[in-house]
Design goal:
The complex is a heterodimer. By secondary structure, chain A is an alpha+beta fold. Chain A is 51% helix and 17% strand. In chain A, helix 2 packs across helix 11 and helix 9 runs parallel beside helix 12. The model of chain A has no long low-confidence stretch (mean pLDDT 88). Chain B is an alpha+beta fold. Chain B folds into 2 domains: 177 residues, no CATH class; 194 residues, no CATH class. In chain B, strand 6 and strand 7 form a beta hairpin. Classes of the chains: A alpha+beta, B alpha+beta. Chain A: Belongs to the ABC-4 integral membrane protein family. Chain A: It holds the Pfam family FtsX.
């Protein structure tokens, strides 16, 4: 197909051609960035948690009025929960992954360090590893005799009494890699908060934090052998048993002590869903805008294409009369659209990088991967061709006899 | 004449129905996407207390030092020690400190179950500082603060729940097994974002239902129902006493200052206070204090969710593309009528007449797009809950100003887009058109 005659025709319709190019360029820029944003959000939504996702339940209770003898009551609650058929494991914990409110601590690897090496989430609660379904990669989990009661630990800390303090900890692989890159973490010492020394006895594969400020540190979690009585219970059961077990658990807890308010009763799937609600919403919005944009652009090409064909009916007739086949006319319009789309895409890629730079500055996004550009190009070429097909076929159907009329 | 042109424009919508439909849809989609996201953005970026935002300030004192503070900024809340020092100094016209409380409420009559209510432990100045409207009674006074009285202010909603909406001033309410005397019932009052409690991430949560004196809550050794941050300083310490004497922050302080001079003076006072703490050996760093008014505070606390800003940007980009599309389609629509224009020009119509006619027609297209856009905006508002957090989506509503804005933007943008096509239409040479027909 000869391109030169097309170009010289386009030169005579500069503005119309420019409008098509501009529309394709803007669409290319926005769609590339929007798809990139969507992929970022999707990656976040599928963040690994490290827990037995579809088997966990959370029940949170609060006492009415002043608390009394919490640890004994918690032991009663746990015993009652264990009796429910179908419950495989229960734990009284201080927090759950993705549940949003979190308990964190600065971690040092040297007592004399001025600043903490990193900030990690501290998970308390006996039997937490079993209930969460954590995966061990080295060493061992915390055992019953590692655990101390939180009040005992606090008193011991103030008194400087090493006996009542927790001594061991289990940390995530991500945390171990960050603290001692390339080294074995087992047996090493860390210092938590106000210089509480802990020995690493186990490393787990994953355990995500309850609240995440920075995705890079999302897996900085550790298990500390402290027993808590905050009224937060994690219950593990088979996925299909969850509804029944949750109902039974509430019933049991109410029997054990009716003088309480239920703050939270949900499956861990619900916790996860709520945590990523914003990300999912943004994904939906962006996908919607992308589809709308592509449709609008396609319709714009259809509209302008029809106009163009109508304007050039007579010229088409002349070409047909001079021997051009229907195929020639069809190809002419397809090539024209391809040329316009190509110019638009080139411009659009430059623009896409510009938009990406703006997003990087204002929304702390990473750089747009290069692979998005050819992908965007192919999509726009396809849309252009599909959109122009209708008008081009109408052009090809113009009979040569038009040339002889009304000249 | 304009009316005539407008009528012509309306009639012309029926010509080339495909092109017209494309244009109207394009404008409607663009304007609706922009309006829905704008409505949400407007809701979250607004001034929650416009009449006083320049006179209310959030003081900050850095009690963590350069080692543990956040990029040089003092913590977003205060320790009990510092909060009490500000209250006792009494350097501002009005001042209050507050923390969130979560209390179980005993139903007054019948067999209802106890439930949790969220609210604040604060000082009596709270109500006058933040212009809290009252349905019955009023806030407690300074004497109640000093007497550490067991009084409470409840919200209209809670009053409805407990007393069926009757005037409950003077009656009693049981919170956390303690009896309080009700002194006031607020009207529905829920500034968004809740600027005075940004520390707890409560910017867009449900309205608070109960208020009790800070001094009384301290007597009861009440724990905060909101956030408590100890940064690198360590843990909460032992027991309640250890906690309130420590360096954990959990109290939000506010002061009301009438003039710039007063604000400067107050900043001086904060500086002097930090200096005194440094001399006393509590801070081992130079004074690092801030005094931000409501709007600066909201900016600092990132009250506008990034999602909202980003989606507004995306929607505006979408609108621009829709407009570019409209320019092309209008051009097609107008140029098809070159023969008609030629005849009108030959019959004596001036270029200005052509301008007027075609801009009026574009206005009609814009109007049609705006009406459809309005409908889509309405739909979008209903669906906003799927995109934004329900708490935020609830804030966006289709009011008269938004309806007017939608139509205005649709018509204005379309007329603007029509300038080039109209200019081209006006350039049509009558002789050319007449010759070939």
């Amino acid at each position: 197909m000869d391109i030169l005659p097309i170009l010289s025709t386009l030169r005579r319709h500069k503005i119309t051609a420019l409008l098509v190019i501009l529309e394709i360029a803007l669409t290319c820029a926005i769609v590339c960035n929007a798809v990139f944003l969507v992929s970022q959000r999707l990656e976040r939504i599928h963040m690994v948690s490290g827990v037995a996702e579809h088997e966990l339940l959370e029940v949170e209770l609060a006492n009415i009025g002043p608390k009394a003898d919490d640890s004994a009551r918690t032991a009663e609650d746990l015993a009652a929960l264990r009796q429910i058929p179908g419950v495989t494991s229960v734990a009284s914990v201080n927090q759950l992954p993705f549940a949003n409110s979190s308990n964190n601590s600065g971690i040092k690897i040297d007592r004399k360090q001025n600043k903490s090496s990193l900030n990690a989430t501290t998970y308390y609660g006996e039997n937490i590893a079993d209930t969460f379904g954590l995966q061990l990669v080295a060493g061992r989990f915390l055992k019953a005799d590692d655990y101390v009661d939180i009040d005992t630990a606090k008193k011991a800390f103030v008194a400087g009494d090493a006996k009542g303090l927790p001594k061991n900890t289990v940390i995530t692989l991500a945390m171990a890699e960050r603290l001692w890159p390339g080294q074995q973490a087992l047996g090493k010492q860390i210092y938590m908060g106000n210089d509480l020394p802990l020995t690493v006895v186990g490393v787990i594969k994953n355990l995500v934090r309850p609240s995440i400020w920075d995705d890079a540190t999302a897996q900085y979690s550790m298990l500390v052998p402290i027993q808590v009585s905050d009224g937060v219970y994690a219950i593990r059961t088979a996925p299909q048993e969850r509804d029944r077990v949750l109902k039974a658990a509430l019933e049991k807890l109410k029997q054990a002590n009716p003088h309480r308010v239920v703050l939270q009763k949900r499956t861990w799937d619900e916790i996860r869903e709520k945590f990523f609600q914003n990300d999912r919403a943004m994904t939906g919005l962006l996908v919607g805008v992308c589809v709308a944009l592509l449709v609008v652009t396609a319709l714009g090409i259809v509209g302008l294409g029809s106009f163009w064909v109508a304007q050039r009916r007579r010229q088409i007739g002349v070409r047909r009369a001079l021997g051009a086949t229907r195929g020639n006319i069809l190809h002419y319009f397809q090539t024209e659209n391809f040329l316009l789309a190509t110019i638009g895409i080139v411009l659009g890629m430059a623009l896409a990088y510009g938009v990406n730079l703006f997003l990087m500055v204002h929304y702390e996004l990473p750089r747009l991967p290069v692979m998005y550009l050819p992908l965007g190009a192919v999509v726009l070429w396809l849309i252009g061709q599909v959109a122009v097909l209708g008008p081009a076929m109408r052009a090809a159907a113009v009979p040569p006899v038009v040339a002889t009329r009304s000249v | 004449m304009f009316v005539h042109y407008a009528q012509l424009g309306l009639l012309s919508l029926r010509r080339n129905p495909l092109l017209t439909a494309l244009m109207i849809m394009s404008i409607a989609f663009g304007v609706a996407a922009s309006m829905v996201t704008y409505a949400v953005f407007r809701a979250v970026s607004g001034d929650p207390i416009p009449q006083k935002s320049a006179h209310l300030f959030a003081p900050q004192v850095d009690n963590w030092g350069p080692q543990y503070n956040r990029k040089g900024e003092p913590a977003s809340a205060m320790t009990y020690t510092d909060a009490m020092a500000l209250m006792h100094a009494h350097k501002a016209k009005r001042q209050t400190v507050l923390f969130q409380v979560l209390m179980s409420v005993m139903p007054t009559q019948g067999s209802g179950l106890p439930f949790k209510s969220a609210g604040y432990a604060t000082y009596g100045d709270f109500f006058s500082m933040f212009d809290v409207p009252f349905q019955y009674g009023q806030g407690w006074n300074a004497q109640d603060d000093d007497n550490r009285a067991a009084v409470a202010v409840i919200s209209r909603d809670l009053n409805q729940k407990l007393f069926g909406g009757a005037n409950s001033v003077g009656r009693e309410i049981e919170l956390e097994e303690q009896t309080y005397r009700i002194v006031g019932v607020t009207e529905h009052w829920d500034p968004k974002p809740r600027f005075f409690d940004m520390f707890n991430g409560n910017a867009y949560t449900d309205a608070s239902e109960v208020y009790i004196p800070f001094t009384h809550a301290i007597d009861l050794k009440m724990d905060t129902g909101g956030n408590n941050s100890c940064s690198g300083v360590g843990n909460r310490g032992v027991g309640w006493d250890g906690w309130i004497r420590g360096e954990c922050v959990w109290i939000s302080p506010w002061v009301e200052l009438d003039s710039k001079a007063d604000a400067d003076e107050y900043l001086q006072f904060l500086h002097a206070y930090a200096q005194e703490q440094q001399r006393a050996g509590r801070f081992s760093w130079a004074p690092n204090v801030r005094l931000r008014d409501v709007n600066a505070w909201l900016e600092f606390q990132h009250a506008v969710p990034p999602e909202s800003r980003l989606s507004l940007t995306v929607a505006l980009g979408f609108f621009v593309i829709c407009l570019v599309n409209t320019i092309g389609l209008l051009l097609a629509k107008f140029m098809r009528r070159a023969p008609e224009i030629g005849i009108r020009r030959a019959l004596g119509a001036s270029r200005a007449d052509i301008y007027r006619q075609f801009l009026a027609e574009a206005g009609m297209v814009g109007l049609a797009g705006g009406v459809l856009g309005l409908f889509l905006t309405g739909l979008g508002m209903a669906g906003a809950g799927m995109v934004f957090e329900p708490q935020i989506a609830r804030l966006a509503h289709l009011d008269m100003s938004l309806v007017a804005l939608t139509l205005l933007v649709a018509i204005g943008a379309t007329v603007l887009a029509a300038f080039y096509p109209t200019w081209r239409a006006a350039q049509v040479q009558p002789a050319w058109q007449l010759k070939s027909n």
